[in-house]
Design goal:
By secondary structure, the protein is an alpha+beta fold. The protein is built from 12 helices and 8 strands. The two termini are 17 Å apart.
Amino acid sequence: MSAGWNTIESDAGVFTYLVDNLGVKDVQFEELIALDAEYLKEQSPVYGVIFLFKYPAGEKPADIPKDGSFDFEAAENIFFAAQTIQNACGTQALLSVLLNKEGELDIGQQLREFKDFTGAFPSELRGEALSNSQLIRDVHNSFARASPFIDETQRTATGDDDVYHFIAYTPINGTLYEIDGLQAAPISHGPCSFSEFPGKVIPVLQRRIERYPATEIRFNLLAMVRDLRLRAREIGDMEWQRREEQKRTAWQWENALRRHNFVGFVGEVLKGVVREKIHEGSGTYEKWVEEAVGKTKKRIEEKGKKVGGGQMAI
């Protein structure tokens, strides 16, 4: 891992345990597989949604947003932080919801102290404070995939890179806001109460997706909701509670795998296979290597036809 911010996945288990490790109580994330207001309402209470999308290559922040309007006054009255470092956008997006829901959620002592400390800062300085928070950075990085081949250097994305970005949508003080640290201010999408949020955010998301070609499907949407285990317990649905507990167990297992470096294990397996092939004799080993090289070349060619460049988060 680098000393900076590493890329994390848009995954409900990652985000749920990330906020849990930051000290937030009774919150989880649910992946939304369809832009359906009724389905989103079923997850209520919904505190906000985190939207992941492919960032258009070469796009620069504009003076006027493509949808909605900048609310510069809100930038001083709510928690809004400019994004000042690469790869922090996922955690910054979820904090943009959490730190604007202090009266509705128990965000924990450490995030409460961070919010109080940065409360009087301008958005650029808030962004710097967030980027330099060792607590938040360490928790964020603990959910990055382990890799012995990770590039420790930071570089600017080029036109050949697939660049992805997280932003948040949440109702604050009777207004639906889009909170994106790369923009000059929060973007207002009109009046919206907490209960109206599921119905009003879906059309906004649909309009955003419609800006892309019909062939673009690389989007992901996570809803920040109340811990579903609590809801199941309150209504006495033991089967639902059991399923939620199983989901948590699976998330913990997946998160543990993300942190593990499997190169040593794979190396030992490969050595065992090589010994077996050599033991078989009659050119078995050479034939096996030749077939593997051929299959690898074919996969590389097929992958090159489908998508070019690397993937980065901003």
